[in-house]
Amino acid sequence: MFKNPIYIAAGLLVLSIAFAFTPSGQGKMSAYFPDKEVDQATLKEMYVEDALLDLGDEKPIHFIEKLDADSARMGEEMVKYGRLLDKSNKRISKYFVCTDCHNVQMESADPADESPAAVLEYSKKNKIPFLPASTFYGMFNKRHWYNGDYEKKYGDLVAPTRDTLANAIQLCAVQCSQGRELVNWEIRSIMHYYKSIGFKIKDLNFSKEERKELKGYISKNNDKAIGLLKKKYSQANPATFGHVEKPKMDSYQPNAENGEYIYQYGCLHCHAVEKEMTNFDLGNNKLDFKFLHSKFEASHHSLLYVTRKGTYAFNGRRQYMPQYSMEKMSDEQLLDLMYYITSKAEE
Known about the structure:
Layout: E1 6-9, E2 18-21, H1 40-44, H2 48-54, H3 69-81, H4 116-126, H5 150-154, H6 165-176, H7 184-196, H8 208-217, H9 222-230, H10 256-271, H11 286-294, H12 303-309, H13 331-345
Antiparallel strand pairs: 1-2
Helix pairs in contact: 3-7, 6-7, 10-13, 11-13
């Protein structure tokens, strides 16, 4: 029996022509579909995960049948404040909250392009922090976590997180935030929050040709329609750890404006004095810039080193700095940051 039959516009973002989403992999039309088009505004707000399931996609391990608003609210409070606002649960970490490293909104104009350049361009337009970890917006739509070189940092701990979102949340709470293990209702609430900020149809970017292609698939081959939808956002966030040497890019002219944004919305997101987050405070005075500039060539904990390798927590100093992978800050952007610091130090 088909459930919740609806029309989906082939244009998706444009939503000019409605098409039926059915749960049959062969794309057979359902007799239960309404004869009239569904309101376009409603279609735009439809979650991509729901669209995929209506097309017959396999349910993910973290599948949630129905979003519970109260659970999502509790999950949001824990993500943003480290505990429920009514203080009925214990703080997850004494040192960090999730939004110290993760955004909770889109980071690029196109979910299929999460490159450092695309993220920085979008961040500058929307005044979004430039952070080392992946945004939680659309995290519910992913299928794999702690990918690539994270195994080098966390070893065997990443194995159970690679395809299970609940395990990834737990690892982040205990290792990344240097906090406690979450109980089941806390993980469930955070998952509901992730579902509430999953990708919607309106978030995906389709070209005219892709809209036409999708029109041809729906009601004929839903498997291909699923594949085309999934092409419009990444299924995972890979991580490649960079090198601690200064990038050799003689032909590249660093961009001071980009460097300034990375410093103001990246470095100071955690290191600003008023944040009271780390043991290393920074500001916009010349002494700070001169100090950072002096660390360009340092043999230990140079700016290059902590950017690419981060630091590690140890007893007595649990706060640490996570590294920016190559997918979160490009070599060009690292040169931009160094160029901006140099210019301010030499003013």
